[in-house]
Amino acid sequence: MSEPERRRGRAHDAEGAREAILNAAEKVFAEHGFDGARIDAIAEAAGYNKSRIFHYYDDKLGLYAAVLRRIDQQASELQARVFAPLLTDESLTSDARKFRTTIETVIGFLFDFLVENPPILRMFTWEAAEGWQTFRKIASQFSTDDVKMFRQLLGKAQEAGLIRPGMDPYRMFLIAYATCLGYLIFSPPLEMSFEDEELSSPDALVRVREMIVDFVVRGMMVDPVEAKP
After folding, report:
1. Of the candidates 144, 140, 104, 126, which has an alpha carbon nearest to the alpha carbon of residue 185?
2. Rounded to whole angstroms, how far apart are CA atoms 31 and 29?
3. I need a surface site. Which of 22, 24, 109, 199 has the fewest CB within 10 A?
4. Distance between CA atoms of 130 and 108, rounded to whole angstroms?
């Protein structure tokens, strides 16, 4: 085997090791939170020793940050595919129907991403329970460019008269995001308490998704009914 081939082989092995470690770490952090997670458990689940983990990620906080960065990157890649065709339309902030479609798409995306990635819910729950003390240490590692761009978009739509005057559309989205999180976190125990209520089945989640989207659109837009196609 030539030297370039050996280097490619080592790079492939390292990439596979990193992926296995991140997968194991995501699972353990979701189950136990940052403070409760043990590197020994992550190493055992990943099939690699602790020295390999520390070689790649320095310490437990570095590994935790890498797990969250991967989730953030996955979300950003999905956002780019979903929103790029919408955001490149120059008439978006002056056409009520197009803007409504964009808002529906954004909220639906947030809900779907959380449904499809349960570890995120558990990690956020642990962080909230611990006062976000761990995330505060690594928050500066995450880009906010997409948030800034979205806030500018909302501002233009409000200037164009699509969003109610006096409404803070960005905070409205934060409320919508919190609603998605809250429903997905608390629907299982409520379903256990009220056995006749179907709250977390696939059909129930479809209905709730529609309700949250409608709540945001009606609360934010001027005459949203007239904006329907």
Report:
1. 126
2. 5
3. 109
4. 29
CA–CA separation, 63 vs 56, rounded Å? 8
- How far apart CA 155 and CA 162 sit, in angstroms, is 10
- Rounded to whole angstroms, the Cα distance separating 19 from 205 reads 30
Q: How is residue 7 written in tokens?
A: 């280097």
How many CA atoms lie within 13 Å of 38's alpha carbon, on the beta-carbon side? 4
Of 73, 79, 24, 75, which is closest to residue 48 (Cα–Cα)?
Answer: 24
**Rounded Cα gap, residues 94 and 49, in angstroms:** 56
Tokens of 223: 């005459």
Contact assessment for residue 227 and residue 99, using Cβ atoms and an 8 Å cutoff: yes
Judge whether 223 and 106 are in contact, CB under 8 Å. no
DSSP reduced 3-state for 228: coil
Q: Which tokens belong to 98? A: 């197009």
SS3 195: coil
What string of pLDDT tens digits covers the 229 residues of the chain? 433 333 334 444 788 999 999 999 999 999 999 999 999 999 999 999 999 999 999 999 999 999 999 999 988 888 777 777 676 777 888 889 989 988 898 899 999 999 999 999 999 999 999 999 999 999 999 888 888 888 888 888 999 999 998 888 889 888 989 999 999 999 988 888 887 778 889 999 999 999 999 998 988 898 755 444 4
Question: Cα(29)–Cα(34) distance, rounded to whole angstroms?
Answer: 6
Measured between alpha carbons, how far is 128 from 43 in angstroms, rounded to an integer? 26
**Would the pTM of this model clear 0.85, i.e. be above it?**
no
